[in-house]
Amino acid sequence: MFKKIFLSLVLVACICFMTQELWSAEKYPNKPVTFLVPFGAGGMTDVTARLIAEKFKIILGQPFLVLNKPGASGTIGVRYALSQKADGYTVIVAPMTEVFAAPYFLGTEALNFKDFSYVGGYMPQQRVLFAHADAPYKNFAEFIQYAQKHPGEISVGSGASQWALEVVKSIAVKNGLKMKYVMFKSGGEASTAILGRHVNVCETGTGTPAFQVAREGKLIPLVNLGTGRVPYFPEVKNMQELGYPFWSIVEYGLTLRAGSPEEIRKKLEITLQQVVEDKEVKEKLIQMGLTPKFMTGKEYAETVQEVVKSVPQLVEYSKKAIEG
């Protein structure tokens, strides 16, 4: 008798829990949602987060507020997000490919893939190494030759992508280059650095201020550190085409803390697809030199997990880079 009563109570509790979860998802969001950007203001993570936040607000009827928490290639902000409730009100907006790779490069504790619930992807991005238009090298081959003849003279900046910077170091290893490396908190900050001539060359993503200035002819794209084509610069070779063993892969997306209600995750996924396929959003992203592309949460999770597998090899290889 007691056993039957106990099982009945458990069943009632489960039904109540499921009903509550469904009600929560149906009413979600009933207060402002935080878009946690783990990079600095002015970079493409920040810019695109603010763009899609406006559309999320229109579709879901609540403000989506962007909060920047930069540092350690995105891991500081992401760890902060993991300290918040798993209720769907803190959404990470970031290239999780970059975030998962960062601890390998920084020698810090790795992030656990299972600590996250993946909403979906919205944009791949190419990372480009830029030089000043009046530099003594006008293409990648000339840059390599110049750097070989001037060891320790060239300073390389990075727009908050540790992965892309390590790819630059792998180029240095292969060609016997000695260069200085500087990490910035965002693509915006890195763009300011190269435009202000604080570094000789700088890697940033497509869409950044540096990219826009390159479209005006004031900077030169030397090489694509990724594997695709650079919008507006289809002639620029990528790392695969040049026969290099490593390259950077950047996929932007939305992510939640694991344990967030599946119904809320799914609602965000559906909304993200609507936003990415919105005509106005697509036009704005394309005008900036970006490539809108929706991925489901499952596809995004699989992509992130797969591409990060090459990172440990890159770490070991780039350690040989001589700095100075």
Describe this entry's structure for a reader.
By secondary structure, the chain is of the alpha/beta class. It has three domains: 1-29; 30-125 and 249-312, D-Maltodextrin-Binding Protein, domain 2, CATH 3.40.190; 127-248 and 314-323, 3-Layer(aba) Sandwich (D-Maltodextrin-Binding Protein, domain 2), CATH 3.40.190. It has twelve helices and twelve strands. The chain has helices at residues 2-27, 44-60, 75-82, 96-106, 140-149, 162-175, 187-195, 209-215, 262-276, 279-287, 297-307, 311-318; strands at residues 33-37, 64-68, 90-95, 116-125, 127-132, 155-158, 178-183, 201-205, 219-224, 250-257, 295-296, 322-323. Strands 2-1-3-10-4-11 form a six-stranded mixed sheet, with helices on both faces. A six-stranded mixed sheet has the order 9-5-8-6-7-12, sandwiched between helices. Strand 1 (33-37), helix 2 and strand 2 form a beta-alpha-beta unit. Helix 2 (44-60) packs across helix 9 and helix 6 packs across helix 12 (311-318). The longest helix has 26 residues, at 2-27. The model is unreliable at 9-19 (pLDDT under 50).
CATH-level-2 architecture of the largest domain: 3-Layer(aba) Sandwich
Mean pLDDT over all positions: 92
CATH class of the largest domain: Alpha Beta
Spans where pLDDT lies below 50 across 5 or more residues? 9-19
How many DSSP helices?
12
Could you spell the SSE succession in H and E letters?
A: HEHEHEHEEHEHEHEHEEHHEHHE
Order of the strands making up the biggest sheet: 2-1-3-10-4-11
Beta percentage is: 15-25%
CATH superfamily of the largest domain: Bordetella uptake gene, domain 1
End-to-end separation: 79 Å
Using DSSP, what is the number of strands?
Answer: 12
